[in-house]
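Students often ask why we bother encoding 3D structure as a string. The short answer is that it lets us treat folding as translation between two languages. Here is a chain of 231 residues written in the first language.
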Amino acid sequence: MSTAHGARARARIEVTAAIKEAARRQLAAEGAAKLSLRAVARELGMASSALYRYFPSRDELLTALIIDAYDSLGEAAETAHAGAAHAPPARRWTVICESARTWALGHPHEYALIYGSPVPGYKAPDTTVPAASRLAFLVFDILRDAHRRSALALPPLSAGLRPEAERMAADLAPDLPPEVVVAMVAAWAELFGLVGFEVFGQFHRVVEDRERFFRHAVDRLARSVGLPAAS
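And here it is in the second language, the structure alphabet:
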């Protein structure tokens, strides 16, 4: 790579990062629905036409921000899990859930972007899926580990739901029992419901000791997917 080419590549990386940082500030101030490329360009002192060379549309900028948010959340969870890699499955579950809560409280606007209200007119492309899956992959790995050790209790499953459970298992985790996959999807929705209630202020004057409450709820969710109690 020539010196000039390397300098251009570095400059593009720096400008791209500056655009995304300005866009995050706009998210915090206005919300994702009002994200504007022209407003970002004005903040950076750029011509709109120059910014379009980096992000041709608002949707492409939104997609980049969404991928960054999912990757940041996934990295936080992976780092936390690495510190508890040899702990019992239920403890690893708790560590991952707590890392998701901590990240969300520290990044409320990015959390709102990926788990809040959909942005009108925007449809996330498939390129967001790998980043969005990082956290879920960690949890499924914990369940697989417990299943291999015969330490995973099968949650109850109604006969009427079994066909849907088998379809979900085939799509998401064919090496896990359908009972566990259904329970996991339900627990996943409950987990982010808990986190969202706290991030968006729904626990105001309802839950005071939120950390202890969250730990209690996460322990219950671990049991709901069949994980044994942490020793």
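Translate back mentally: The chain is about 70% helix and 0% strand. Keep this in mind for the problem set.
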